[in-house]
Fold:
Amino acid sequence: MASLVSRLIGRLSARWTPPQDVRAEAWALGGRHRGRVVEGARSELRAPGLPLRRALLLRAVIRAEGRS
Structure:
């Protein structure tokens, strides 16, 4: 039940991630992962204990990079 609620909140919150936050995180990921933004975001998503807000931001970066 808790995972269902967190997934629902995640989907709703993901729509409200400010574009400037997504761009800034993509830039930082590129620096940390030698230009491999999507791979870096996926790698960081696997980290244990990742806060929900950070996971939403990383997923927003992956979506944004997929569109560009």
User: Anything to note?
Assistant: The chain has four helices and no strands. The longest helix spans residues 52-67. The chain has one domain: 2-67.
